[in-house]
Amino acid sequence: MPVLQSSLPGEVFYCYVRTRYFYGGALPPGESAVMKAAVYGVRSRGGRALGFNVLLENGASWAGPAIPISALCHRGPNGDLDPAAVPEQPLRNLQAWDCFGENFSVESFSGLPDLVWVRLPRSGEVVEGRYQWTIDWWGNGYSDTPWQHKQGHFVALNNGNYCLVPNNYCCFHDPSFTDPFIVKKGAVPKFAENRFDYSVEGSWVVEGDGQFFYDDQD
Fold first, then answer.
1. Which of 45, 102, 184, 205 gives 2 a disulfide partner, CB atoms 3.0 to 4.6 angstroms apart?
2. One-character DSSP codes across 18-86
């Protein structure tokens, strides 16, 4: 049975939501630009942006249609940003791909460093942020194909926005272990895409023309 929606690691995170999303996209006269919110869940539908379920300070719960990541903002890593003044980014610049389906899991990987640099999907701008959690999909044609599979890392950007991007848009930094190419201003690694479905009994390998052959790994 499809999961469709899920709670979040740590139960909730607190942020602000741009009020216009609750009024069909236009801010009514007299309404504040942002509202305090507790985000308590996510909703994934294939071919749609990830949605967020929120509890507002006035007691209202908003879950359907769930709001997109472009509706969310925060006060920055030092708490000194005015959420109402945080420039809203286009949705396509904050989420790299639509969701791949209704089957997914959400996990906060304690082994991933907090500090991460993100290349925004459309503008190409590199922005520093803090890793929060990861969503991953299964049971669909994209996620089950080795070279199409993508996770989505949810990151609180230092500019007051959030983003959801795959591994190849990220550069993580653990001072005790990594030597980031972003800091060194080195070239982005040109890793080859994975075309293997590994198995101890042999792997199905997909050639560039879409043909399959069996590799016994001897």
1. 102
2. EGGGGTTTSPPTT--SEEEEEEEEEE--TTS--EEEEEETTS-EEEEEEEPGGGEE---TTS-S-GGGS
